[in-house]
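Morning F.,

Quick status update on the modeling queue. The single chain you submitted on Monday has been processed. Sequence for confirmation:
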Amino acid sequence: MKRALLSVSNKEGIINFAKTLKSLKYEIISTGGTAKTLIDAGIEVTPIDQITGFPECLDGRVKTLHPKIHGGLLARRDLETHIQTCKDLNIGFIDVVAVNLYPFQETIQKPDVVLAEAIEQIDIGGPSMLRSAAKNHQSVTVLVDPDDYTWVAKKMIQDTLSENEKQALAAKVFAHTATYDMAIANYLFQQQEESPYPKQKLLLLNKNSDLRYGENPHQSAAFYTVNGKKGVCQYTQHHGKALSYNNMLDFEAAALIIKEFNEPAAVVIKHSNPCGAAQATTLVEAYKKALAGDPIAAFGGIIGLNREVDKVTASEISKLFAEVVVAPSYSQAALDILQKKANIRLISVPKLEQVGNYPIHKWIDGGFLIQDPDTQDQPPSINCVTQTPLSKQDEEDLLFANILVKYVKSNAIVIVKNKQLLGVGAGQMSRVKACEIALEAAGEKAKGAVLGSDAFFPFSDSIDLAAKAGIKAIIQPGGSKKDQDVIATCDQENIAMGMTNMRHFRH
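Structure tokens below.
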């Protein structure tokens, strides 16, 4: 009789899998809670201590670490010496293993978890069994993921489980145990240091999908998640062609911006920079205002919305060629409209509040740069430093501008009026040039608008340009040796200026 060993923390699907094994005349060996679950479901099991001849001990820390178990997993069926040794030692082969591990990662996510509690959730026997079975995968079918039970069971019934499929299951095991050990190591390293950046930090990349291409069509690309799906990675694509490398960067930028706003908001992204953005009382009005900021640049852009896309908004979006739409969700009526456009990608990110809350990992040649996200103290307090005071409308527009300028490549300047983005100066080597570009884009609409800067003004030349264009208020972090000159120029031109003491470079 063939034998299967089932020992799982996650009981999902295990009863049906065990029933399949029983129908194929397998003896089922099981432990603790898994054995009880199967027995309660009417499935006969052999307790682990009946196999080992040794009782579970040390509060369950030792139960499967025994030659009768690991010999049965590791014995090669193609070596006569292994077969004879098992006969001599009365070790029976184990042909199927389904094991998943103590919930260590879930435990350490609890806000009040203590070290002793985390330590008790470090599984020892489970990873040992998995690794033994995976090493001998030519002879042992090993499963660590409940999602694999159904298709493996079907293959076992048909007797068509291939060597390549067994190897893929084994590879999945080693990736899983590596992830598990990595989580433990990272947690224990972090316990040793007050810094959020310990001496070692382990990362696991899981392939999410192949991308249509890289930054250019001649470059191949793929998307990997780091240590599980989080934030913007929890997206679902409802329609359209496969995403490209650039699409991913742009839709992340859209999600990062729209999650900042409580009122209905829309943004249009081109080359990772916002070219249009607005808030309004309804989503469709926010979208129309965002599009009106720069309708030429919006062509072929990425649209971000912070509310469920409704029929009216979808009808407006359908009038424009857009590469991607990103939103928390879509009504069925909206999908019916937008799915008629063959080339548009429809993406939902339902947990927008989780976007942008994780450390930023930026790859440079040979290593990673890691930093906290730029989310502190938003919205900032504005310290008005000029004789001209800030009105309530000025403050609202300046806060809107200050959020947007965080997501514009440095040097960055934005022009805003009535919570509508009118002009952007992005990625310039001089701040005055960024001002020129933003003001030129805004044109006559700059009169009575406000200006946001991601960093301080080194000279008052940018203020001269703003005054000439009719800007009435400015927000910037301050901190320049020339701050007093800049403030004096604002006073001369009757421009109100607020300082936040917080720079927002984005490289």
